Amino acid sequence: MKNRFLLLLIVLGSFSFSCRESVDPDALRVYDGPVNSATNIFLIHSDSAIVRTEIRAAKQLEFLNGDQEFPEGIDIKFYTKNGELETTLVADRGYFIKNENLYRGEGDVQIKNLIKDQSLKSEEIFWDKAKKKIYTEKFVTIQDKGTVFSGNGLESDDSFSNYRLKSAKGKTELPGEGI
């Protein structure tokens, strides 16, 4: 009886050990990288058959949650109601945060209003597409015709026609060409 019991324990024990597999914990991690990639993208937003914005990027990565990354830079053009190119926004890297409908440019960010002869430089800018505004809390340098302003933080309409520096740091009159 003792031998049978011991044999039964050995058999049951070997079954319980043989059913286990060693699993690599890295294999169980959820993939959070891009699910789609595109090159040389060109997106146009129009209203009443008039182009309102154009977005160009050399590379676009799309993630499962709908967010997008533009690791090689982003170029956005804004047009007037009459279809005239008014403003350009260029950044070294770009991001689109889908659940907020918000674009973010970072690195060397430059915005130019071609009609009003205004330009902005910063290291980060946000464009709220729905509210049609751009903003940042970072340091900015703005050239408005012959004057250069600098400060921390900015709010503006997305055409960069009407802007407000949150914390102005300085103002310089330029004798000639600007930034």
UniProtKB/TrEMBL annotation:
Gene3D superfamilies: Lipopolysaccharide (LPS) transport protein A like domain (2.60.450.10). It comes from the Bacteria. PROSITE patterns: PROKAR_LIPOPROTEIN. This is LPS export ABC transporter periplasmic protein LptC. It comes from Algoriphagus aestuariicola. The lineage of its organism: Bacteria, Pseudomonadati, Bacteroidota, Cytophagia, Cytophagales.
